[in-house]
Every structure is written in structure tokens, then in C-alpha cells.
Structure prediction request, 382 residues.
Amino acid sequence: MMKKALIFTFLAVVFTSFAQKSTEQFTSKKLGEDREITIVVPKSYGFDKTKKYPLLVLLDGDYLVNPFQGALDFSNYWDDMPEVFIVAISQNKNKERYDDCEVSIETGLPEEKGNLFFEFIGTELVPYIEKNYRIAPFKIIAGHDTTAGFLNIYLYKETPLFDAYISLSPELPIEMENRLPERINQITKPIFYYHATADGDLKKMQTRIKKLDEGLSKITKTGFNYKFDDFKGASHYSLVLHAIPNALYQFFAVYQPITSVEFQEKIVKMESGYVTYLSDKYETLEKSLNISMPIRLNDFKAIEAAILRNKAYNEFDELSILARKHYPKSMLPDYHLALMFEKKEDYKRAQKYYINAFNKEPIGDLNKDMMFDKSEEMKKMQ
Prediction:
């Protein structure tokens, strides 16, 4: 019995150490058939029972799931993007994908099987995933050519189901290049939108895609996050591999840690407000992507460096308050106060807070040896 328990524990650890990818049959009452879907569960899903993940729904999932998963895994490894929950709908039969995306040649709206497929995603598949998994409110949909044009129809709804749209070389239904900009102008909630073409793309599609870009580029309202790419030297198919990371980095730009360029060209040049900048960065992340996370330790260190470089020592008080909120049991809050008093040459109080930090939990490069040495140094300075 003990041996079986150990084997089970080992398998559970191995299973949750990697993204869990499974293919299953989803029974749809709307479609009156079973549909193959692939679910990719983030590798951390089993470790943090409170964490929620953005949802990415992939049309043409049979061939888009691997490039999207690869781009997300790579970027998450470097902490440039969050982990994302992927649901990929297989449409590997040519007739199936065209039937799924059937639209009226007169209205450009879903009809027949296309209408059923549209409802299947909105009223069956997404609600099922939200009910059974920990999904954050931020939802993305992506597709290629026929499916890319079709996914835009969700933007025609009064309250669009998805927050972000990746339309790769879309084959646009009638009048969509004119209607979509008008519709997006009327939407009140924030919308992220990416689309792409290439010089090797189908010319008829390329012309309409560029016209759509003209209309979308004129939208200046707050809350519309937009990017268009026209790749050189790429084909209708190869542009997909160029576009996927561009789209994802566009959507998740606010998630990235403070970069060296951001530090040198923006933060250090500020006269004050370094801690406010850090707080606002993470508040924007939560508001725009519905992702709540502790402030990264490296981002604390970047703000610490900016304060030191500009001798804005009083801001260490604010930074300590912020550190206490995110890392209350760690040395970080007391360390910031100690550093503030040391730089202001109040060595007695600096020693006090270095001793306080000594009694807290180490974090990053802050440890007990360092705090002891600093407290002894402050004692000698008095």
C-alpha cells in the first residue's frame, strides 16, 4: 500500500511539472455531434489552487495548438508572459472548417452550421471550461484565414465574448473591413486586436486586410489596444509563425518585468514617483488583463536602484510599505527602511531596522549574514 502511495505521489509531481495536454471528445447539443478538442492545462495549475489563468480559444486548433503552446511556454520560461489555459478546437477536415464558418454572402453573419458553431463556442464550450477550470476573465480567440475572418463576428455582439482577437490572414466576410471599425468604436469594454498579412499572402485577401487596417488605425479611443503586421518575405502560411509571438507580446506587454531599456530610458529619468510607477504597473496589469500577482522581487530591486541613483531616499518609506504588503514575512520591508536611514546618516535607526530584518525570512540576495554585517557596520558609524 505504501509503495502504491509513493508511486502515485511521484506521478502526481511529474504530471504537474509540465503543461498537461489532452485530447477529448466534447458532446455538443447545439451541433448535434461530438467535437474533438485539445486542452492544455498550465504546468502550475496543480500547485496553486487559487491561481486563475487567461483563456485562449484556438480555431484550426489541430495545427495552431503547437505553435501557440511553444510561444507561450518559451515566453513564460523567461517570465515575459503569464501561463495561459488553451482550448483548441480541431477542424482538420477542409469541409468541416468551412461548414463551421459558414456565413451569409448577403449579410456576412453566421448561417446554417456557422450559426450553430458560433453558438457552440459561446454557449457550450466556453461556459464548460469556465465552470470546470480556474479561468481568469481575460479571454482570447485566434484563427487563420477562414476561421480568422469568422472569429471577428464575436465583435458584432453588443457585449463581445472575448477580450482579445488574433486574426491571422483573415478571409473577411462581406463588408467586414468597413463594419468592424464602426463596431469597435461602439464597444465600451477594452478590446485587444491583432491581425496580419504578408507580401506573399493571397492578393485578394491582402487588399481587404489592409483596408481593415486603415479603418482600425483611425480608432483613437482609450481601451483599444491595436497592432497590424505586414510581413515581408512570408507566405500565407509562414506568416503564422511570425505573427503568433508578435500578437502575444502585444497583448501581454504590461505583464513583462521591468526591462533594462525601461529602467534606463524611463524610470531613472523621472524626478520622483518611482514607487508610484511600480504600483501603477501592477494595477494596470490587473485592470487590463485581470491578472493579480505579487510584485516581482527584481522589480523591487529596479526601483531600489532608481531611488539610490537619484538620491530620493525618502521614497524607501513608500517602498517598504509596498514590500510589507507583498512580502510581509520577509526581510525586504525592514531592509528598505534600514537603507533609507543609512543613506540619511541616521545610523542608529538604520542599525535597528537591519536587526529587525535579521529576524525575518531571507528573500532573494537578502540573508542573515548580510543583515548582521550591516548592523555591525551601523554600530561602528554611530
In short: The chain has two domains: 2-255, 260-381.
